[in-house]
Specification:
This protein is mostly helical. It has a single domain, classed as Tetratricopeptide repeat domain (Serine Threonine Protein Phosphatase 5, Tetratricopeptide repeat), CATH 1.25.40. 83% of the residues lie in helices and 0% in strands. It has five helices and no strands. It is globular, with a radius of gyration of 15 Å.
């Protein structure tokens, strides 16, 4: 990040904090069973950063709960591809597990 200006680094920090808060809210709504609200929050995250593998994974989980297998599969695959690029081992594992669960449906 050394090549970014101070203003750009501060902006990135604010955006990262916002997406983290939205992602946390989305996962919290999912845990409460508020799937529509969770999807809205995941969509907000993805409107800011389409490369957010955690949001793609969470969105896949919501679709899985709603029995929307094709949508869930697409989201898990996107999460997996992004996680592999970023070497996010946790999301790689969770997305693979999500895809395996879908194969059993």
């Amino acid at each position: 990040m050394g090549s970014l200006s101070k203003e750009a680094r501060e902006h990135k920090k604010k955006v990262d904090a916002l997406t983290q808060r939205l992602r946390d809210d989305a996962f919290r709504e999912r845990e409460r069973g508020n799937y529509d609200k969770a999807l809205e929050k995941f969509e907000e995250v993805l409107s800011i950063d389409l490369g957010d593998e955690e949001a793609w994974y969470g969105k896949g989980e919501v679709y899985e709960k709603a029995r929307r297998k094709n949508m869930a599969e697409d989201c898990f695959k996107k999460a997996l591809r992004l996680a592999e690029i970023k070497e996010n081992k946790l999301i790689i594992s969770e997305a693979q597990e999500g895809l395996a669960r879908l194969r059993k449906l």
